[in-house]
Amino acid sequence: MGCQTFCCRLLVRLDPDERKFDNGGGMAKGFVDKTTDGYCVNLDRETHLCRTWARRSRTCRRYNCNSDFLLQVAVRHKFNNIVELARLAATVHIPKETYVQVAHTDE
Question: Which helix (H) or strand (E) holds 23?
Answer without folding.
Answer: none
